[in-house]
Queue: 3 jobs
Job 1
Amino acid sequence: MITINASKRNFCGTKNSRKLRLKNYFPSIIYGKKKSSILIQLKQDDILNLFNKNTLTNANFLIIIEDIQINVKLKEIQKHPFKNKFIHIDFVRI
C-alpha cells in the first residue's frame, strides 16, 4: 500500500484551485461509502514523483490527513494537456 500525506482544504471553487496550483499544490477529493466527502490538497512534486516511478492506476493508497488514515483507490485523474502537472484527482474509499 502506498502512503500519501495530504492536508484538508477549506475552500473550493475555481479561484481557490488556481491559488493552490500557484503554490505547487492541487485540489483533490475523497468520497464514497456513504460518508461525507473530504476536500484535500496534495503537493504536486510528491505525487508526480510517485506516479513517475510506478503505474498506479489499480493500486490501493493510504491517505494520511492530520493523523486520520483513509484507505482509497483512484477514481479519476485529470492532468494538464501539455504540462507534466496534475489538475485534480478523485479518490474513492475502500
Job 2
Amino acid sequence: MTFSSKGLLMAIGWMTVLKMVPWTDVISNAPVIADGAKKLWNAVARKSPSATDAQPALSPGADAVATLQARLAAVEATVLDLHQQMLASSELIKALADQNAQLIRRAEVHRVRLVRLAWATVVLAIVVLANLALPLVG
C-alpha cells in the first residue's frame, strides 16, 4: 500500500466518522454550551475567596495556638491558590466554548456552500451530458 492510498483510506475513515456526527444537534446545542460556559465564568469570577481573620483561641498553650494559626494561614493560602486556578480554568472553558461556537457556525456555512456546490455540479453534469447527447440524436 502506498502513502497516497493510506491517506485515502484515512480520509475515507474520517469522512465516515464525520457523517456519523449528528450535526444538527451539535449546531443547535452550540449556543447553549457557550451560554453555559459564560454563566460558569460569571459565577466563578463573582465569587471571591473570603479571607476571614480568625481570633486566637484562649488556651493555656501559646505554642498550640501559634501552630494552629500557622496551619490556618497555610490553608487560607491554599484556598486562595485553588480559587485562582478555578478562575483560570473557567476562563479557559469559556474561551474554548466560544471557539467551539465559532467553529460550529463556520462549519455550518461550509456545509451549506458544499450542498450548493454539489447541486451546481449535478446541474452542470446534466447540461454537459445533454450537450454531448444532442449531436448523437440529431
Job 3
Amino acid sequence: MIIDFNDETGRITQSNQALILDVLHFASDYLKLAKNTECSVTIVTNERIHEINREYRGVDRPTDVISFALDDQIDGVIDPVKPNDQMATVLNHHYGDIVISIDQATIQSKEYGHSLQRELGFLACHSLLHLLGYDHQTKEDEKEMFGLQKEILNAYGLTKEV
C-alpha cells in the first residue's frame, strides 16, 4: 500500500509516524490488499478535527479519527473488504483519507492507560478498516470489525498492554 502522510501539527515524532505507516502496511499485507493501492493519513489538532467533524458529520465536538472512504466497490465488481486475486489488477486504487487528532490520541492513551503508540496504531488500523467498508453500526458489524481489528493488532504485537 502506498500511503501519503501529512502532519499538519508538526508534532508527530519520527517514531510515531513510522509506527502509523508500519501498522497500515502490516494491516494491508494481512488483508492481502494490492501493493499499488493507496490511502492518505493526515495528523491534525483537536481544533481542526472538530471543524472537520462539524462540517462533514454534523457533530460539534472533536473526535479521535475520521475516515473518508472513496467507495465501497471498485467498478461494482470487486469488494475491497474481501480482496482477492482480482485486486492485483486494480491500479493505484485510492481507498480514501484518514484524519487522526494527535491531541485526542494523547488524551485517550492516558485515559485508557496505554502508550500513545498503541493508541495511534489502533486508530490507524481502525480507520483503515472503515476505508475498506467495515463499520460498527450494529452489534453484528461491531463484532466483526472489532474482532478483525484485534486480530490484526495482536498479530502486529500491539496489544492493549502496550
